[in-house]
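Fold this: Glutamine--fructose-6-phosphate aminotransferase [isomerizing]
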Amino acid sequence: MCGIVGAVAQRDVAEILVEGLRRLEYRGYDSAGVAILDTECNLQRVRRLGKVKELADAVDSNPIIGGTGIAHTRWATHGEPSEANAHPHVSGENIALVHNGIIENHEVLRSLLIERGYSFASQTDTEVIAHLVEWELRSAKTLLEAVQKTAAQLEGAYGTVVMDRRDPDRLVVARSGSPLVIGLGIGENFLASDQLALLNVTRRFMFLEEGDVAEITRREVNIFDLNGESVEREVHESNLQQDAADKGQYRHFMQKEIYQQPSALINTMEGRISNDTVIVESIGAGAADILRNVEHVQIVACGTSYNAGMTARYWFEALAGVSCDVEIASEFRYRKFVTRPNSLLITLSQSGETADTLAALRLAKEKGYMSAMTICNVAGSSLVRESDLAFMTRAGTEIGVASTKAFTTQLATMLMFVTALGKQRGVIDPQKEKEIVTSLHQLPTQIEKALAFDKPIEQLAEDFADKHHALFLGRGEFYPIAMEGSLKLKEISYIHAEAYAAGELKHGPLALIDADMPVIVVAPTNDLLEKLKSNIEEVRARGGLLYVFADSDAGFEECEGMKIITMPKVDEFIAPIFYTIPMQLLSYHVALIKGTDVDQPRNLAKAVTVE
């Protein structure tokens, strides 16, 4: 992984390919490369370790003129970050290839290919595919046939694009577990791992399904399914904005996306709530019948989406009266589990391509779940296409690796869904529904108020300049919000941070408390506030340094060793979403002080399309 761009056109494609890689930089990567067939059908390859700018400078200094090419940004899985391991990879003088994913049987295939006389120039699993294609082409009639034969030998996940210099007007792509999209032009066609890469050249896209192999020329796109049968895929018109990859007035994409949350939440709720009700039909066709029969909810997600699911669990049980389990997708898919009667599977994912979550969905279909719904931000993604219901978050393109607006829109979407579920089951009456919907209407304005605390939180962040550890505490539905705050801090500032349910302090974490361990507490006024105050006193008694985010009714007074950040009072239904904002701002400003790469933190990728 991580980013793929390809083009077959009459015009020179070098700038299109490099610009496409720029638009995919948000995914995270360690090297970049491009391969283009020049006017004499020679294979020209340029690779660079580091940023796309290094590749762009190299291409500018030695321009490559040609209309067929592929490009890639790599995030290391097999082999260290290096120019030798960067894509595209080649086999001989003819075959060039880029690949996202992991080939699990690459060692067996590598040994077989060495026996056949091939030598390897990299440590990657990808080079195995290039040599396999070259081998199959010795007997295959076409590049398409060679790629189909190669795909049949691969185990694992891949989105791969192959180019043969002897057939200069054609690309062949194959998809299994790693997303690929085809962009349709006039007398030219494109492909990418994300449609954002191609918005400057087309708005019309086809999404490849699992097992598809496609042959792309300037004028034709021919797609074949897993059985080799010719198939048609629907053409979608994208409404994504080209300027999504522009920071505008903001210093970082993460900062921009934090401040986009009020408008993102308006988009999330538009057409889904009226003055006093949640519109059940907005969830999808047949949603009302499904919701009436739900007796249990199983949420499966990863990372930030898992924290959103953990928050929603409190809502499902307290508001809708439905039992709810939440599990990390990479654990769920590899354990034996019992499917409860009339259980609804909900997958949460920003990208809709998270490998473990997608695998969990496919497994659940075999295990007798009543229905499957995804809450997702990317229309046309695999989770959306393969689920029975898709409740889109409409957050807009999120570039920063550390998720912000995707998280808060997931929470708002879940709250609307819980309300609809409770209503269909007769648990939430019209008055309670009206109270929840009123709170949702207030949410964008309340988020604006939370963003107004940016300057005080920026000053607070200075206390973390020399810190290497932090502890986040919360109770009830604010425990997952503490988890998300902890995750954000560790992701972008590289401070080791942990989150605990505050009642667990006596069971181990108190041993860590000292003046060098800041403790961040999410403490709005609710039924657990007095219990939380007792936990806070336990920290104070041991010399801990406390930062308490509380509302004006909580009754905290600042004193030595304890700083109070007094937030506005908000309705209990939306309070978890509201208190996410100061956690995001704190992490952002601490990262600035630490001097880290906020948008592309080390070792992380935006879309995790491999295990």
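The first strand starts at residue 2 and ends at 8. Residues 29 and 75 are 4 Å apart (CA to CA).
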